[in-house]
Every structure is written in structure tokens, then in C-alpha cells.
Amino acid sequence: MKNICIVLFLLFTAASYAQITIKEDPAITRLMQSYELSNKEELMVRGWRIQIMTTNDRSQMEAGLLKFERRYPHISYKWEHNPPYYQVQIGAFEKKNDLEAYLIEFKQEFPSSIPVQDDIKKTEILEF
Predict the structure, then answer these.
(1) Residue-wise pLDDT tens for the chain (128 aa)?
(2) pTM score of the predicted model
(3) Angle in degrees, 0-180, between the axes of helices 58-71 and 96-109, rounded to the nearest 10
(4) Residues 118 and 49 sit within 8 Å (Cβ to Cβ)
(5) From 3.40.50.720, 3.30.70.1070, 3.30.43.10, 3.40.50.1390, which CATH number describes the 44-124 domain?
(6) Which neighbouring-strand residues pair with 120?
(7) Measured in whole angstroms, how far is the alpha carbon of residue 56 from the centre of its chain?
């Protein structure tokens, strides 16, 4: 029994020093390099923002922005005028799941907050 334990121990010890070599087809290597290069060149991704306000009244939008800036001075925003509406959006998230906790928080101050898709610069994607 003692000899069997020693043999098993030696086998497991030898197996832990084994190396695995993967030989990849050069065509696969070129394909992956091409994919990585095109991904680096792509500056925009389809992501998510939180739209905290939509109104057709510019003064109401400006008042909402002032309220937002006072409450969240560290968070950037953008606003757009898509006639007849003014839309205020914040954040830049890669996945919708990433914004859910923030959406709950912003809904307390801005009840009409909703997630919206947008084209976002990769450098803009953030985690609060």
C-alpha cells in the first residue's frame, strides 16, 4: 500500500511539470490579427446612456440641467435638440446591465429617466 502511494505521488508530481504546446494554423493567426486591428480602428461602439429628461420646453430642460449639475457635478451629460424635443442623456455604458443600478438612483430625482441606445466613443465608456 505504501509503495502504491509513493508511485501515485510520483506520477502526480511528474504530471504537474508537463507542458502543453498548441500549434495554431497560420491562417487562424492572421485572421485573429486582422480582427484585433479592425477592432482597434473602430472608435465607436453601440452602447447605452440614461436619458434623464425629454421635454419640448427649452427653459424646462435648462432648469433640469441646473438641478442635475448641482446634484451630480462629477457626471458629464449631453443634450440634443431633436425637434420638437430636448433630450438630456448621461453616462456611457457598454451593456444595459451596467446602467441598471444608476437608473434606479436617477429615477428618484428624474422620474422619467430611461435607458437609450447610442453610438458611443470607446474612450467615453465609463464606470461611475
Answers:
(1) 666 767 666 666 655 566 777 788 888 888 888 877 776 767 888 999 999 999 999 999 999 999 999 999 998 899 999 999 999 999 999 999 999 999 999 999 999 999 999 999 888 886 54
(2) 0.66
(3) 100
(4) yes
(5) 3.30.70.1070
(6) 45
(7) 30
